């Protein structure tokens, strides 16, 4: 498995959040979806092509459809957003965004409990930290598990 490029920064943040901090009711909780993160990427993510790997995708028809759509040359951001919006939740998934053959960002959902964001673009890290202030540097052992090639897009 390929490692994240040395220039990449990686942060991890909770997937489950309180809508209104300080309120302690179950109805106050919500899940950060892939759709939300794609929107947070804004113009940075708009022109990317995505490759998707979802654990046990063959067991869930919609997951298998998303993986299939991203096979080959990949899938554009708007197409991916249309497939996952508004509230599709994965258990474990890896979403790699490319500009041409260059890996630009990895969004990694772990166990429906947290997200990892890996990118060399400091402005993207700042944007995500602004919206998810609990973000911390991703542990090194997690970075070693990123399954994407770091120099060229898979074909």
Instruction: Report how far apart the termini are.
Output: 16 Å
Low-confidence stretches: 150-155
Radius of gyration: 15 Å
Helix content: 25-40%
* Biggest sheet statistics: 7 strands, antiparallel
**Can you count the helices?**
5
Beta percentage is 25-35%
> Order of strands across the widest beta sheet?
5-4-6-7-8-1-9
* Shape descriptor: globular
Number of strands: 9
Q: Average pLDDT across residues?
A: 86
Can you describe this structure?
The longest helix is centred in the first third of the chain and has 13 residues, at 34-46. The model is unreliable at 150-155 (pLDDT under 50). The protein has a seven-stranded antiparallel sheet. It has a two-stranded antiparallel sheet with strand order 2-3. With 155 residues, it is α+β, with helices and mostly antiparallel strands. It is globular, with a radius of gyration of 15 Å. It has five helices and nine strands, in the order βββαβαβαβββαβα. α1 packs antiparallel against α3 (77-84). Helices cover 29% and strands 28% of the residues.
Task: List strands and helices in order, with pairings.
Blueprint: E1 9-14, E2 16-18, E3 29-31, H1 34-46, E4 49-54, H2 61-70, E5 75-76, H3 77-84, E6 93-99, E7 102-110, E8 114-119, H4 122-131, E9 136-137, H5 140-143
Antiparallel strand pairs: 1-8, 1-9, 2-3, 4-5, 4-6, 6-7, 7-8
Give keywords.
155 residues, alpha+beta, seven-stranded antiparallel sheet, two-stranded antiparallel ribbon, 5 helices, 9 strands, globular, disordered C terminus
């Amino acid at each position: 498995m390929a490692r994240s490029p040395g220039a990449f920064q990686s942060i991890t943040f909770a997937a489950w959040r309180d809508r209104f901090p300080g309120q302690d009711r179950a109805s106050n909780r919500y899940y950060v979806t892939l759709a939300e993160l794609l929107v947070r990427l804004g113009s940075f993510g708009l022109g990317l092509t995505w490759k998707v790997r979802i654990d046990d995708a063959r067991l869930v028809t919609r997951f298998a459809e998303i993986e299939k759509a991203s096979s080959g040359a990949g899938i554009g951001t708007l197409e991916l957003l249309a497939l996952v919006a508004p509230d599709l939740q994965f258990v474990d998934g890896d979403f790699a965004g490319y500009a041409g053959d260059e890996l630009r960002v990895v969004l990694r959902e772990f166990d429906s409990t947290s997200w990892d964001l890996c990118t060399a673009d400091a402005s993207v890290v700042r944007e995500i930290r602004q919206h998810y202030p609990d973000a911390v540097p991703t542990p090194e052992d997690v970075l070693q598990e990123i399954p994407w090639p770091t120099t060229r897009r898979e074909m």
